[in-house]
């Protein structure tokens, strides 16, 4: 039975009130029709300024700011192996699209290293877009005793625990890769975690740590002969370091690029998600961002919203199994 439309009989004031109530009842509709964003957006980068992810995401922020007509502001919030910032976004931010965070594999892994997980990587976030990954590798100071990876492993085997290396935190992807390598080789290295890869490189250059195993902040120092790369963790050799072997060439069945993206708190409106995805995708595919990624040898790993959410859910199960296999736990 057709429903009679009585709204034409309402007084004008009541019509206006009804229209206002309808827009409040469906907030996503109003936002999806072009009123988002109407104020600055904050993107939390969980590393100190100066690293490769920071540079890539600052490029994204600049390009989105120009497109959206609103500032897209980077806030560096390092700590807890790159998980402090995302955890705070998940637990303290409104799901209105104005506070986002970089989503990386440590955020998917770290809850399962705790006695009581403090967040759910799937349920506590709205995952928006997959973007890129890192060039990982190990490098030593130019005057190091080690000319090759094999020499480093031989020394570590003869001197358990004496050789140390640094990463951007406990439970990070590069830390787990090094744990896997030590397990395979039967060697013991001492892990010295830092808050970010730029700090790790500084420690190696200063002689406080023997080796950095992290993202490509070390690459410019290899190019200017202040450091020497012993391995890269890509599927094939890196064009600008043609003499540096991959982990696969060194006998490990490992390719480590740690793809990352951008997410927000759980419960975000899907219209807002589409707007954010489209703006960030356009920025990601731009020549300006491609130049930044090329500078740091960061591969393009674009995933749309649905594909990225499926990847997150699948990868969480992998990370759970990896943590159990290696017996990785955090104190407290």
From TrEMBL:
Entry keyword Signal: yes
Residues of the signal peptide: 1-32
Top-rank taxon, per record: Bacteria
Keywords tagged on the record: Signal
CDD domains: PBP2_Bug_TTT (cd07012)
InterPro entries the record matches: BUG (IPR005064), Bug_dom1 (IPR042100)
Coiled-coil portions: none
Family: Belongs to the UPF0065 (bug) family.
Protein name: Tripartite tricarboxylate transporter substrate binding protein
Organism, as annotated: Roseomonas alba
């Amino acid at each position: 039975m057709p429903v009679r439309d009585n709204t034409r009989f309402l007084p004008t004031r009541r019509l206006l009130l009804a229209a206002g109530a309808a827009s409040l009842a469906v907030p996503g509709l109003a936002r999806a029709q072009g009123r988002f964003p109407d104020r600055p957006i904050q993107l939390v980068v969980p590393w100190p300024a100066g690293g490769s992810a920071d540079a890539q995401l600052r490029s994204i922020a600049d390009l989105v700011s120009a497109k959206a007509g609103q500032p897209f502001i980077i806030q560096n919030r390092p700590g807890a192996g790159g998980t402090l910032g995302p955890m705070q976004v998940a637990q303290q931010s409104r799901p209105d699209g104005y506070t986002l965070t970089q989503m990386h594999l440590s955020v998917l892994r770290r809850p399962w290293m705790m006695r009581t997980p403090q967040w759910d990587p799937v349920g506590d976030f709205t995952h928006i877009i997959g973007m890129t990954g890192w060039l990982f590798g190990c490098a030593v100071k130019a005057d190091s005793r080690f000319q090759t990876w094999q020499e480093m492993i031989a020394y570590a085997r003869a001197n358990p625990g004496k050789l140390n290396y640094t990463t951007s935190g406990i439970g990070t992807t590069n830390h787990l890769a090094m744990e896997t390598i030590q397990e395979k080789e039967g060697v013991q290295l001492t892990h010295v975690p830092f808050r970010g890869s730029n700090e790790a490189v500084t420690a190696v250059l200063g002689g406080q740590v023997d080796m950095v195993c992290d993202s490509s902040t070390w690459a410019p120092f290899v190019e200017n002969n202040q450091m020497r790369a012993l391995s890269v963790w890509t599927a094939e050799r890196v064009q600008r370091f043609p003499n540096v072997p991959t982990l696969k060439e060194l006998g490990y069945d490992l390719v480590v690029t740690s793809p990352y993206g951008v997410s927000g708190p759980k419960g975000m409106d899907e219209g807002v998600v589409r707007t954010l995805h489209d703006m960030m995708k356009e920025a990601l595919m731009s020549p300006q961002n491609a130049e930044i990624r090329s500078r740091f040898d960061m591969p393009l790993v674009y995933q749309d919203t649905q594909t990225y959410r499926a990847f997150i859910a699948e990868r969480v199960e992998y990370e759970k199994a990896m943590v159990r296999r290696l017996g990785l736990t955090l104190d407290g």
